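FIELD: query
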Amino acid sequence: MNIKKNNILVTGAEGFIGSHLCERLVKIGANVKALVLYNSFNKDGWLEDISDDIKKDIEILNGDIRDQEFIKNICRKSDIIFHLAALISIPYSYNSPSSYVDTNILGSLNILEAARSGNCKKLISTSTSEVYGTAQQIPIDEMHKLQAQSPYAASKISADFLLESFVRSFNIPAVILRPFNTYGPRQSERAVIPSIIRQLLDQKIKSIKVGNLETMRDFNYVKDTVNAFIAIAQATTNKLELGTAYNAGTGKAVSIHKVLKKLISISGVNKKIIIDKKRFRPNNSEVYNLVASSKKLNKLTNWKPEFSLEQGLQETIEWWKRRIQSNKIRKSSNYAI
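FIELD: result
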């Protein structure tokens, strides 16, 4: 399926991965509509980080994934829908689980209903490696048991099963992409890699606060994750296992401690490291090891990561340097300044 000149809707377009996906889709030649959560500040999130020559070709729609009629209307003429809108912070899900039900489950239901009633040729919904919980076998393939070790994970598992039910019940052309831990420019400081980089590069910060350094993650550079979205969108629909998930990961797990050492080496900055117990998850909620098997996606599309961890970290550090030099960072109470 050639997505060039297709009408494409991206939900969660103002976010980290969504903004990179919109950017890439415009470069390919797609007609892109970007759903941005309405806010009174008239801000377009990370879409504002995109160059004007690309952003001018993105039609921005301000609204809310939880608004059923609105979603139905904007999906009506969409050939392909990339559904990325979600609440994603795991720590916040402990404090406000009902908001994750509203956005991640009911919001996904709205998208599925809209795809059912519209002319959608393909719906790609975004899941997360967190649905697997701590690995029971390595690498993790799509048949691994799903384990809700946080309210966030529970909401994403529910959304995935909703999609499966709509494919089985109403025959909609929908599939799930399950990226493992994506990182790169524009990622929120709630995530471990940008949090460490910010603390390393910001001269006002005298030490680096980190959480559990022993957990293992399969880190994927954002450009590789975007390539996975594009690959699955271009795959022939009759070759897709509709209603199922496709993992996207490197197949290599790296400890947070090793990532920290790489960031210190690449940046050339070294500061005192403080283990902050407030940054630990509850014991039974911590996911200790995530590493993907992406054989299913590779067999379908030949997708595989192109960026090494060192290359991705280098590009991310350079982006952060530019942000700091241009004074585009905000003061954060999470750090000792």
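FIELD: remark
DSSP finds eleven helices and 13 strands in the chain.
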